[in-house]
Amino acid sequence: MDLRGYLKLLARRWPTVLICLLLGIGAAEIVTAVRTPVYEARTQLFVATRTGADTSELNQGQSFSQARVQSYSAIVATSQVTQPVVRQLKLPYTPSELADRITAEAPLNTVLINIKVRDTDPVRAVRIADAVADRFIGLVERLETPKKAPAASGTQADASTVSPVSLGITEKAALPKKPVSPNRLLSLAFGVLGGLLFSAGIVALREALDTTVKTSEALAELTSLPVLGAIPYDRSAGRRRIAIEAASTSARAEAFRKLRANLQFTQVDNPPQVIVVTSPLPGEGKTTTSVNLALSLADAGLRTCLVDADLRRPSVAPTFGLVEGAGLTTVLIGQARIEDVMQEAGGRLSVLTSGVLPPNPTELLSCARMAEVLRELADTYDIVIVDSAPLLPVADTLGLSPLADGVLLVVSASKTGRDQIVDAAGSLSRIGVPVLGAALNMSSAYKGKGYGYGYAPTELPMPRPATGTEETVPQAAPGEPEEPDAPTTAGTAKNPAAGKARKPAAGTAGKPAAAPAAAGEPDEPAAAGTPEQPAAPTTVGTS
Questions:
Q1: pTM, whole model, 2 decimals?
Q2: Under DSSP, is residue 179 helix (H, G, I), strand (E, B) or coil?
Q3: Is the pLDDT of residue 409 over 70?
Q4: Does 143 score more than 70 pLDDT?
Q5: Is residue 409 within a helix (H) or strand (E), and if so which, with residue range?
Q6: Which of 53, 95, 252, 379 is deepest in the core (most CB within 10 A)?
Q7: What's the pLDDT tens digit per position in 202-223?
Q8: DSSP string covering 451-500
């Protein structure tokens, strides 16, 4: 993974980064509050040589002092200085402990010595610095004094017995106002840096251990299947499964329309009529995908039937608020006909609910009667969407899939593992079921708000009538509500222009229902009653 990909990964895992950053800052604040403040007192010494007024002697003395000053700074923290200071000030430290609190440095090309003393008490730090400076001056002058025999009584001392070096204090220690440790800003900087590094390590570890699929490209590479659509994540999807609404321009609605368009072009020569929608595991959005895909197909003018074949945890009937007591199982055991239990959802979609849950769903879905029901529905409707059970937990879908024309595999992004996806696709491949493609649900690749202008039309536009047929187009009276759902359920429209546009769609799917409408004849529904009853063609009794 390159740097750009890693930065995108950090942006995607921003909650983890934020939590680690807050933990780092909190740890820095705790360390700052717990540590005892340490104060620093500084004093400065000047090293001079006793020479004459001659210029050459002054230069020699200057060179001598610069050569000596580096050696002097090394003996500031020796026991010859610290031991007398501990006794003098009665410090609670040993000479070695005091030496650890003293630092001395001599700037290059200077004759200055800077002595620094750190202590938890600022007053004590000042006293120690001054005492160390005084003791150090006496020690250096004593060390530099030549050792010679003492002069005779009554005679003057020889100048050679005097120390050639003289040390003076140029700056006495001042009382420090602020502690030098802990440094709050420095601690915060280390806390931020540590939090970022810790979060980067956690994100990298999670990414290495995460085996889920997050993008359409990864899903296509893993399964070798075309990804027909990527449904973006929406928090309200759990409460509102239906995304395809009238004139909806949301990102999810447009994603389902793209899924519908891609699905219609999967097999142009032999378009599938019965499509099973399934997923590797429960909770991946297969029912939501089935419902919205069926609604989008119905909105496109196709006579669509949605069958709830999940006989363990059916969800289609609660989604539309339909009756659950009679449905597919009622037809399979011969207690009712299809047209008796078929229900309408929103006046544009026919729904065959699951019915009473049976004790043997696997055997019931793979029986010969189930194949007859699907053939009968395929003869009546342009397309049949079957919502089935998940693949891996139960064997229901493996027995049902061979009876359909194709399977659509729904995978949840950042939830389904790679091994689970491979197992699900492999199980379909082993039984020879044609897999039309995959759909990536809960994808985070697209975060737009849809393509629109900030409003949705309150009424669906009426199509312009064909030339010479204006008198046959019914006009809605002022204040009378229009019926926009009729063209989507009956397969034909009230005006001839809309009716002729729908006939090629039914013909392409191989339906006999569109055949009676001849060119040039007035538009009459083949299997419907009067135009005032647009929902009639969705039942099967007229087939």
A1: 0.57
A2: coil
A3: yes
A4: yes
A5: strand 406-412
A6: 252
A7: 988 888 888 889 889 999 999 9
A8: SSSS---SSPPPPPPPTT-GGGS--PPTTPPP-TTHHHHHSS-SSHHHHH
Strand, coil or helix: what is 443? strand
Bridge partners (DSSP) listed for residue 407: 276, 435
Residue 167 dihedral angles phi and psi, to the nearest 5°: -110, 140
User: What would the two tokens of residue 110 be?
Assistant: 């200077």
DSSP of 362-385: HHHHTSHHHHHHHHHHHHHSSEEE
- The tens digit of pLDDT for each residue in 341-400 reads 999 997 789 999 999 999 999 999 999 999 999 999 999 999 999 999 999 999 999 999
- Token duo for residue 442: 């809960």
Nearby residues of 420 by Cβ (< 8 Å), 6 or more positions away: 280, 281, 392
Q: Is there a contact between 328 and 366 (Cβ–Cβ < 8 Å)?
A: no
**Coil, strand or helix: which one is 506?**
helix
Query: Tokens 């000596």 belong to which residue?
Result: 68
Q: What is the DSSP string of 234-263?
A: -GGGTT------TT---HHHHHHHHHHHHH
Cis-peptide into 182, omega within 30 deg = yes
Question: Which residue do the tokens 């601690």 mark?
Answer: 187
Residue 59: which H helix or E strand, with range? helix 55-74
What letter does residue 119 receive in the DSSP assignment?
A: E
| Nearest 10 degrees: Cα torsion 253, 258, 263, 268 | 140
